[in-house]
Give the backbone structure.
Amino acid sequence: MHTFQIDVQVTRGTCVESRHRVHGAVVSADGALLGAARDAQLVTAWRSCAKPFQVMSLVETGGLDRLHWGDDELALACASHGGEPEHVSIAERMLRDIGLEEGDLACGPHEPLSRRGARILHDLHMAPTRLHNNCSGKHAAMLARARLAGWPVSGYERDGHPVQEACADIVAAWTGLRASDLVRATDGCGVVVFSLPLSNMASSFARLGDAWARVDGAPRRIVEAMRSRPFLVGGTERFDTVLIEESGGRILSKIGAEGVHTAVDLDRAIGVAIKVQDGAVRAQYPALLRLLQHVGALPGVLSPRLQAFARTPIRNTRGDVVGGVYVMDA
């Protein structure tokens, strides 16, 4: 097993001003731990990285076909989107298709995560709605699962509701755990969130990549939707979108809040998962990119778009570059 260094430092001039400790795991499709950064068994909340699995029961039970939904709707269900007009339009259409509306979403409104989305909303003098929430696609898909199964729509986001129990069963199966092993809490968008070891997170993405390559069915549809619609997964110049695009769809990446991120090298079905110990987003992207470089999923010299995430400048109020954020061995 390889040991990797992916801690991130923040410099001001020639001085290291801050450091972010980063934990990580690299796992093959057969569950073997190939590499680790600090504690690969660290238990933490998986946050939005779980979305490709949370939508899986809708796909497996034929919900997409019954609703005549395609890659747009499926990609948005897996997304942490930027709240741009294209994202909002699809989420709104998903709700309309099942006879519901924005008020049925359990997630709250928040400012669009992409700069373009925020700018458009500001220029229109509009306040953000629940549709702008980066998880609105996931919520719309969960409502569709309840609607099609004849389950109550009210409370679909709560622990114990059949929708959340179905999600827990699938997350457990793909991560190699029992549903009772998953530590449950409430995510930022209001639905159930699961905590589990980083190695199990990485294993699930490795297995997803392996299933995508070998068999038809829900895993292939989910992966293909995300690969073919990278803009819907994130948004304008957002990290997951850029990584999928710049890798030519070879790497599937899914962000989570508080410094957690999961990805898979689809060519080799190798999954990776990281957690920035203090949850700092500024350390999240350079750490994941460096880990992907360590395992050979990305070249030593990154494309300009990815390099902008790997080493970001720190500027003062005048716009002068006074430091940077990057992996400590960079």
User: Anything to note?
Assistant: The CA atoms of residues 255 and 261 lie 5 Å apart.
